[in-house]
Structure formats: C-alpha cells, structure tokens
Amino acid sequence: MGTMEFTKQLTNLQDNLSYFANTLTQNSEDAKDLVQETYLKALTYRDKFEENTNLKAWTYTIMKNTFINNYRRNTKINTVLDSTTDLFFLNSSKSAADASPESVLSHKEVSAVLNNLEDEHRIPFKMHHEGFKYKEIADHLDLSIGTVKSRIFFSRKKLMKSLHDHV
C-alpha cells in the first residue's frame, strides 16, 4: 500500500477514531488531542503496519495504548512521594490552626444549625456525612433505605434554608 492510499484510508477513520477517543477520555478536548496523537503515531510508524491487515484495529490499538500511557504518566505526575524518613508529609494533616477565621465561623454556624435538627433527621445526615453508606445507616437505625435517603435529603434542604437565612 502506498503512502497516499495509507493516508486516505487513515483519514477515512476520523469519525470512528473521534468516537472511540470520546469514549476513552469523556472530554471533547482531550479526545481531539488523542486523535491527533494517534494520527501522528500512525503516520510515524507507517512502516510497522502490515499490508492486508486491519488498519482500523491497528489504529485503535495505537489509540488505546496512547491513552493508557498518558493516563499512567498523569497518575505518576500527580503522585506525592514522601522522601522523609518518618513519612511526616503523608501522615500530617491540616490542623484547625491552619483554618481561616471565616471557615471556623462557617463551621460553627453549620454545626449550630445541624444541631437544631430533630434527631430523626440529624442522625442519618451526620452518619452520611461521616461516610456511612445508605444501607449501613438503614441497618443501624432499623429504617428502610428510602426513609434514610429522604431524611438526608430533607436535612440538606433545611440546612440550606437555615444557612441562607443566616447570610
């Protein structure tokens, strides 16, 4: 297959590659970048393509591997390495002393409003806020999941209304 034929067949795959890139990235700008990078690699390594094989599958493989490599690279970039001997950075958390006065005040206001809720709404809301799943809350309080969800929903509504009135 000549260069012109290869390029023509490759450009005919643009819609398919764009769709596949969108499914991988879930972001239109990242998908466009991925398609461009795939085209660049396909054209650069055209000599690696074996004639009479599936060009679409070959380019999909290039795209998938490029996506995976980019994902791994981005994950490594965002990873914090703690080289201290006692792992101080990983084990230290922000203390209350680091909080701004506005956030302390806001926290006090939210806590005051939350404590004014009835137990039947406050307890499920606090448990959910602490990370309990709906099922765990329902089992602990001997309620149905629907009841737990509605109580948490109404607690949020009451909190938003009360806090809006404070502002």
List keywords for this structure.
single chain, Rna Polymerase Sigma Factor, Chain: A, Arc Repressor Mutant, subunit A, 2 domains, 9 helices
Structure description:
- With about 170 residues, the protein is mainly α.
- It folds into two domains: about 5-75, Rna Polymerase Sigma Factor, Chain: A; about 95-165, Arc Repressor Mutant, subunit A.
- The chain is about 70% helix and about 0% strand.
- Helix 3 (about 30-45) packs across helix 4 (about 55-75).
- It starts with a helix and ends with a helix.
- The model has no long low-confidence stretch (mean pLDDT about 85).
Q: Could you state the order of secondary-structure elements as H and E?
A: HHHHHHHHH
CATH H-level superfamily title of the largest domain: RNA polymerase sigma factor, region 2, helix turn helix motif
Straight-line distance between termini: 71 Å
In angstroms, what is the radius of gyration?
27 Å
Major β-sheet profile? none
Overall average pLDDT: 83
CATH domain class of the largest domain: Mainly Alpha
CATH architecture of the largest domain: Orthogonal Bundle
Domain count, please report it.
2
Structural class by helix and strand composition? mainly alpha
What is the secondary structure topology, with strand pairs?
Blueprint (H helix, E strand, L loop, with lengths): L2 H9 L2 H12 L2 H17 L10 H23 L10 H4 L9 H15 L3 H11 L4 H8 L3 H22 L1
Give a quick rundown of the structure.
The chain contains nine helices and no strands.
